[in-house]
Amino acid sequence: MTIRFKTRLLVLATALSCAVAGVAAAADVKPRLIRFGYGLNEESVQGRAARYLAQELEKVSGGKLKMKTFGSANLGSDEQMQGALAGGAQEMMVGSTAPLAGMVKEFGVFDLPFLFNSEKEADAVLDGQLGQDMLKKLEAKGLVGLVYWENGFRNMTNSKRPIARAEDLQGIKLRVMQNQIALGVFNTLGANAVPMPFSELFTALETRTVDGQENPITTIQSSKFYEVQPFLTITRHVYTPWVVMASKKWWDTLSPDEQKLVRQAAEASRDFERKDSRADSTKAMTTLEQAGMKINTVSPEEVARMRQKVQPVVDKYTQELGPDLIKQLNDEIQKARN
Ligand code: TK8
User: Which residues form the signal peptide (predicted)?
Assistant: First the structure.
């Protein structure tokens, strides 16, 4: 090796290691503590992704941006945390879009039933124009929407009977998320829908304050609903996402470099979380079978009947959310489908 070549290698190696050490060293990054709240427990998909996000943030910031995570709604329900972020009392959170629709009504589109057929379609819409436009609408309400995590396709559980047809929902008190569309959909299908924050749900099921609920398989497993709900019905009736958000009041105090690092870590957590959620979904199903849940799948014909039944609710909210928005949504889904 010639000396010149050696020097060149050294220069290259130094440049590389600087790049790896990250923007953090040279950039305007101050030591900060970020409180990140979420609703599920630490052993859930959400818990794992929160830990991943905290580690990633610490890594990309060279240890300066430290995140403390609080699971099991220890900082409050989704709705309470939204308020805390808007007021500047908490820095970050992840929560469902359903209660966010109380702040930005357009988020209600994700509560429209039987919209997406696959995770791939959901990813395309959420990471595409519509999903990103929606995140921007949060700013006016004091929130900065960063990325979508997967919660997943929702299915029903209850303590009374298998749901083979919509009629089987008659008389079932079914907890739904705090959202007008969810309420309308389940009442129209025949259930007695009861809106309630997730943080109160296990106890409500255990004490039979409600008979049933609906959530993705991963949550039914991690929240141990199988201990109090003998029946699981696979309906995949709606795909609801989670949104990772920051308080705008707090965000505005960050330097552009810091904002960039938080975004970067959030994007990495999104990719991690979606992969983990999809793998966990299969595993969770086996756990639920082994736990002795009685599992049935609603037939495609019955899904078509349910779809028809809830069409008036879809029509009503198409008007309320804006026919143009719903058209854009359907166009984007169609594009992803083909
Ligand atoms: C967790 C909730 C949960 C949601 C629900 O805080 O409320 O049923 O599915 O994931 O956001």
Answer: 1-26
